[in-house]
């Protein structure tokens, strides 16, 4: 029987490749347009700009810290949810999914009402005579907000990996008399290990591109990401050209976006 030649690229892969190529083409076109219309300047000065490198380092650093503090506790939380069936477990999982659709400013104002200078913790510490010095602004506030948004997401991803463990493996571990640590090491950890890196990468990308959280809780030039630095540059450019500012922002909200901060 003659064998038919297999195509180098399966047919089912073509739609994905075409979509990826279209996205890449749009991104390259946008970058090419920006490069073509960029003002002429000495590119060597960019490599010597200390503030630019500070912004880049802070963006990567806060995203890396956010990914670590979101994924590491999610491992133990997912394991607890996997091994225990208790009343309200399904409700807790639904609440974890709500962070994906919750508006950022709602969560930020809620966090400020708890950790702010006039929040619940500050009031409680005042009653107890304890000095409350925590500030929800700056790096610590950004990390706290990212933890609130991304740890439930990482928990659900890791829990899904644990629930995909075959029932035969769990039954075999029970027959062999494995204790909790041995079950985690030989049964659960191989499933978690395959999901930790994708979950961490997803959280890292979400925190790297975080805008509203950093805009609300950033502590000034020391806690600025790349996107917020771009907004600050546009704000200064629009302020120096009033006509452009009126045409680009008819509501008048953009020039004051960087100067407003919740009074908590």
From TrEMBL:
Domain of life of the native organism: Bacteria
Lipid bilayer topology: Multi-pass membrane protein
Gene3D superfamilies: MetI-like
Membrane-spanning intervals of the chain: 12-35, 55-79, 91-117, 137-159, 196-218
Keyword terms, alphabetized: Cell inner membrane, Cell membrane, Membrane, Transmembrane, Transmembrane helix, Transport
Keyword Cytoplasm applies: no
Keyword Transmembrane (UniProt): yes
A GO cellular component annotation in the UniProt record: plasma membrane
A single GO BP: transmembrane transport
Cell location: Cell inner membrane; Cell membrane
Database matches in Pfam families: BPD_transp_1
SUPFAM superfamilies (alphabetical): MetI-like
Coiled coil: none
Location of the ABC transmembrane type-1 domain: 56-264
Family: Belongs to the binding-protein-dependent transport system permease family.
Protein known as: Sulfate transport system permease protein CysW
Source organism of this protein record: Serratia fonticola
Gene: cysW_2
